[in-house]
Structure formats: C-alpha cells, structure tokens
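Write out this protein's structure.
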Amino acid sequence: MTVIDRPQSFALTEPVRGFLKKQHQLLIGGKWVPALSGKTFDVIDPSTGEVITKVAAADAADIDLAVAAARRAFDHGPWGKSKGLERAKLLWKLADKIDEHAEEMATLETLDNGKPIKMSRIADIPGSAENLRYNAGWAGKITGDTIPASLPGNFHSYTVREPVGVVGAIIPWNFPLAMAIAKIGPALAAGCTIVLKPAEQTPLTAIRLGEFIQEVGFPEGVINIVTGFGETAGVALVDHPGVDKVAFTGSTATGKAIVRACAATLKRVSLELGGKSPTVILPDADLAKAIPGASRSIFFNSGQVCAAGSRLFAHKKIFDEVVGGIAEEAKRLKVGPGLSPETEIGPLVSEEQFQRVTGYLAAGAKEGARVMVGGQSVGNRGYFVEPTILADTVRDMSVRQEEIFGPVLCAMSFDDEDLEKIAAEANDTTYGLAATIWTRDISAGHKLAKLLKAGSIRINGGGLDHAVPFGGYKQSGWGRENGKDGVELFTEVKAVSVNLS
C-alpha cells in the first residue's frame, strides 16, 4: 500500500472557491432562504478533518415551508398539469448544466465526500447527468393497460398511472450527487414534486444542483432542497402529513425507523438499504479477472458502497491464490486525499464513520479474525483506513454478519461444489442486496444466481445500468430503483371501468 503525502491544500479553481465562500441556504419555493432558526452547521473535508464551509440547518419549521411549496406546485401549479415532453426537456437541460460544470461538481464532490477525484470525474458526475437523460425518456412513456373483461357484461376497463404526489427524498453520503439524481430523475419524470434532504455530511453538490435547477427554469416549488440533520429535518420530513411518499437510501436501521413512522398515515415508502454482499469464486473461474474484480468490489469508494462485495467465498483449491492476489491488489492501492490525481483509496467520510470502521477492525481481531493485509488507520490527520482482508472469519463474528461500510473484506473458503450448499452459505445473512459470481461455467453461474437471495446478481463482473432495476431482498429494502420499475415507484395505479351496455 502506498500512502500519498497529504499537503495542507490543493489548488482550487475560482468557481469552487467562490462557491465555498457563499452563504449556503435552503432552496424552498424557488428561492434561497436561511433556516428560520438562523442555525448553520459545518461541512468537513474528510481528508483533513477541517471545516471548508457552513450550510443552513433546517428543522421542522423549514420542512413545513418546503412541503407546502411542493404541495402548491403539485396541486395548483403548472407542474401538475405538465406534459411528459415538457418535463423531459427540463430534465435534459439540467443534465446539460451538470455537464457544463462537470469539473466544478467533481471537485465539490471530492472535497465533501473524500472520494478520489478521478472517480468523481469518470463516474459520479457524468453518470448523474446520464441518469437524468435516461429518466427524461420515461416522462412521456408512463402508461396503463387495457384489461379484457372476465365476468359477464359489456365493460371497458383500463388503468392509468398517476404521480404519487409530493415526495420526501432522503439520501446518503456515499454518492451524494448520484443519489440525489436517482430520486429526482424518476420522481420528476413521473410528474411528482420533491423535497430533497441531502446527507448532513455531504450537502455541497446538492446545493450547487439547486442553483442549476433555478437557472434551467423549473417552476417554483417543484424541487426543494433542505440541508439539515436526520434527527431534525429528516424526521420532520418523514412525519409530515403533506408528504405522499418517502424515498430513502441509507442504513437498514434508519429504514426500519422510517417504516414505523410512516405506519400512522400509510404513506408510500421505498427503501434502498444496507448489504453484506457475497462474492463467490468457483474453482473454474478466470482468476485474472476475478481477483481484480473482487478487489474493486470491496475497495471501490473505500468500501462505502451498499452493494460492496464484503464477504468473499472462494473454493479451497484456489483460496490461497485468490486471497493472496487480492492482498497484492490492496498493497498496490494508493491511499491519500481525494483531490490528489494519484489517489485510489480516499478517506472515510467522517469521524463517526472512521470510528465505526476501526471499531469493527478491533472487534474482528478480538473475535479471532486473522488480518492478512491492512487493519490499521493511516496517519494522524483525516479519516484514512488501510484496505483490509480478514481471514478465518466464522458465522457469529460481527465483522461477518454486520455491514461495516468500509474497505474491509471477510474471506472464507468452501470445499463443496454443490451449488445449493454454496448458496446457503452465501445467503446466511439478514441482507439480500447484491451478489457476484465468478465462473467459466455459465450454466453453473445461472443456476447459482437462481439460488442466491439477492436483488442484483452479477456474473463475471456485470455492471450497473440506469435501465436495470436495483434493490434488495430481506432487510436490504423495499422496491426497485432504475428502469421502468424505478419510475413506477413514484406512481399510483388507478383502475377505470365503464359500463358500455
């Protein structure tokens, strides 16, 4: 593992410096306003632990205003009467605006989250723009069905899909802009209005997005952006009677709390939650592809990925070669501040997350896991943790059962080639978000995919796509994002029957 020197600061462009100097407020009803309380909170650079700017801290009173604005825009404004093509054009304009300011957005994302700048440039920012364009294509294609009668009589029956209404969207900090767009794109394509609460750790690109939203001409109140803490702004948004649907991405524990809160009004809920996803490498796999693939699956974004391949199952015939290969990959990774162009592993997002991950590393060692590589924090400034492989993990260890959300791989071998037994081992978790299979035998790959209890299965490294549904089984969530399923999450089905007699 190479550690890159961490200078005090990197040169920032004038647009980025200018943005950081602003007074960052709440976007409510098309206008930037301070929190009614006047409160703000610090935004921290995870590479240094230093404050880079401050943003408004919304609470329940601000949420009231934001929901009221979204309610007016949906119930009485032009958005509720808009055609799909009109919505699509605005989504395309917003995508173009992101592309126009791509370097600025990439820098803000990396400053805020800590991820390597090359990842922000290659994936997060252009991927967000393309997600908007993809969902814009659905805006005029949301249809119902004509249903043939099955009982006596002369009836014409059909269904229509209507927008669910005002959406309260709460997003995580691991992919800040991409997660914001993952909610905004399909919700607006369906004709909903939205109140977006970014994660308190990473509000900056959401705020800059709000400025773009104003510039491209969305009607007032269609998109409202409220920065604040989960226990105040987030709770108020979930509880608000003016919200028709809550769309949440984050931890399973918070998802459960949201479900309990929404039970009183039965408002619609979709949840994309945690994971403890298995990577299964069968003995015939192409290890030249499987080893770097398994490494990327756990160390990408410092392991702060809900679908990270955090449990490795490799056949005992190849286990030593596989784990040794991943260990070599880990040692070669360059750890450093996100703005360094050489960095491959950035810091964890916050002091809280740093303490969580290092706490699991200590627990794993205490419970008997063997550290094959890594296992330590890095330096005395910022929130850096080495890419780590833990071997000799057993079922009851916390590191094997619980989501760590860091660059920590739990490796274990199996000596049976019975696919049902392999699947039973891989399925032995409360989660069911994703799984990856490596094999040259495509028949075995398909059979194992059928047996795994997960919402997203990748065979030999298949990737994510805006058109492919994503979501989890078991305690990994409710509903599916992306594709047609993702747009329909923001609709209600209305059935109409006409007596033609």
